[in-house]
Amino acid sequence: MKKLNYLFVFLLILAASGCAPDAPEQKILTDDERMEWWRDARFGMFIHWGAYAIPGGERNGEICKGGAEWIMDKLDYTIEDYEKVVAEFNPVDFDADEWVRIAKDAGMKYIILTSKHHDGFSLWDSEVTDYDIMDAAPFKRDIVRELAEACKKGGIKFGVYHSIVDWHHPQAQAPLYPNYNAGQKDQTIVNPEFPKYYENYLKPQVKELLTNYDDIAVVWFDGDWIADYTTEMGKELYSFIREIQPNVIVNNRVDKGRMGMEGMDREGEFAGDFGTPEQEIPATGIDSDWESCMTMNGSWGYKPSDHKWKSSEVLIHNLVDIVSKGGNFLLNVGPDGQGLFPQESIDRLAAMGKWTKVNGESIYGAKASPYDRPEWGRYTSKDGVVYAHVFDWPEDGRLAINPEMKVKKTSLLASPSTPVEFDEATHSIQLPTAAPDTIVTVIKLELL
Ligand code: FHN
């Protein structure tokens, strides 16, 4: 019996005797209070990491199509073959504090780590399985705990991505088991064992994450598409989570309302606190909570053969575009099998940090503006101020401003002392000849 369990039994007896010290009551926040930090944060880091980082999307010279985190399915590993990959997972260069430093320096305010992806391998010390980092891999360190603690120390929020799909658990795949991926291809196959997996494995794992790691701020479900997972399960799971941790935030993939990759719920009552557009940004603003998640290249998991890296200019434009429409940007990093971020990711995050350090005032806590999107860029708004993000610097230096705005004062966010005069007659601003920031220059418009 693990030492920990003796302690647990002792506490149980103490509680039964009525002598347990009162657990500090957690103030149950209103929905707006609960969402406040998330709405202010605007920019977070997604981390897809696990044993799939070892092959990096390649097996015997064959490259996995799509995300490298799908290699088990796409390159037809048997469960036994993939367990051998897990048995090699020993990322000795993993340094949670370094990951948090990079995220903070980029201007990111929260981190979402895959606690368990579709391959079923758990990155924490799970009590309900030995297919976890402590028992199935040589690493034997609780990655969820180390990153949660590093985030707390670094003053940023931590959450977990948790897959409903599980290609390793027998009940999650029966009667296909061990042919775990047939259900991916034929969603008409009914798995009578799935309710047992849901009740006896999925829920207990979610509960131990929310109970043993007291800093889980977000639960980011995925895998909602499988036919065996029902909206009744989704609604029950959402309530189950909020009973354990009333102030945690849960995405809409906990239920079945999501309309594909556009990520928002269709008409109807569905559980979940925010919509989840994936690899795309809504065309217009959306007046509810949502977060676009995106990769930097074409893969969520580490994939060295994928060189389709988005430029830091595109990533900064995406951040501004998303916030101008009222959303959050969850930008992904896929660490390698040693526990290191790819240099291409580090470089882009550093460039984003350089920009957010100067212009973060127009992002954090900002919302969509009530004004139509200008042709030259985007508007965000906060506390009676509109921030004009200029993507395309006007050749004549004159920037047309929405005529409905009653402008009191204008200034360059990056250099308040640089004069940018507002001309009432033409409702435009005379700008310096050259853009101070060639990616996005921000002009602060204080309104009457
Ligand atoms: O299948 C997953 C994929 O591996 C990745 O985790 C993304 C990111 O949210 N979600 C699913 C694909 O939509």
Question: Which terms summarize this structure?
Answer:
single chain; 448 residues; alpha/beta; TIM Barrel; 2 domains; seven-stranded parallel beta sheet; five-stranded antiparallel beta sheet; 29% helix; globular; disordered N terminus; binds ligand FHN; glycosidase; GH
Could you explain how this protein is built, in words?
By secondary structure, the chain is of the alpha/beta class. It has 2 domains: 29-362, TIM Barrel (Alpha-Beta Barrel); 377-447, no CATH class. The chain contains 12 helices and 17 strands. A hairpin with a 4-residue loop joins strand 15 (421-423) and strand 16 (428-430). Helix 11 packs across helix 12. The longest helix is centred in the middle third of the chain and has 19 residues, at 194-212. It starts with a helix and ends with a strand. Mean pLDDT is 93; it is low at 1-12 and 14-23. Bound molecules: ligand FHN.
